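Q: I'm writing up a methods section and want to include an example of the input and output format. Could you take the sequence below and give the corresponding predicted structure tokens, formatted cleanly so I can copy it straight into the document?
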Amino acid sequence: MKAPGHLTGQWLDAPEGHRWWFDSGSTALDFAYTGTVGPNTREILHTDNDLSSWLIERFEEFDGAVTERELADAKALRETIARAVIAISRGADPAGEDVDLINLFAATPDIPPVLAGGRRQAGRSRVRVGQTLSALARECVEVFSPDESERIRECAAFDCSYVFYDESRSNNRRWCSMQRCGNRAKVRTHRAKSMA
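A: Here is the clean output for your methods example:
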């Protein structure tokens, strides 16, 4: 499940210094990974401009304006999403207060859909921060639902704790990234077979 018309994934800087592409499978989970989710991530939304840049990349209709208060609201939602997705990936229910906050953001007006090809944009104006946060929260409502939550899982690598939404048709994704943990697992398996 993705925000309408938007791709998922982003470049992350690993603590050991290299950059790698992580596609969480969900724009809302990508948002959670703009902050500290577990030991291997770090804050990237230091200023209102950082949040503006991140939202512009995902919501082309976004007007780019962010206040300090909106940055604080966004970080509160982000931390809530992170806690909820970690709980779900471990087979637990998210905390009630986290569910309440996601539902609160989801209940606010989001970005209205538009059929392309018309000359007028009735009811459509600039998209504000609150609308993008509502769209992210609504995505959480869908992805965290009992029907979909089984697709939320932690990377199968023993030394990785990244969580993703498996959007594959076969529902068999195991790694946060094939180029990162998947490749390391293949190398380990190959070495073990070579030594046997």
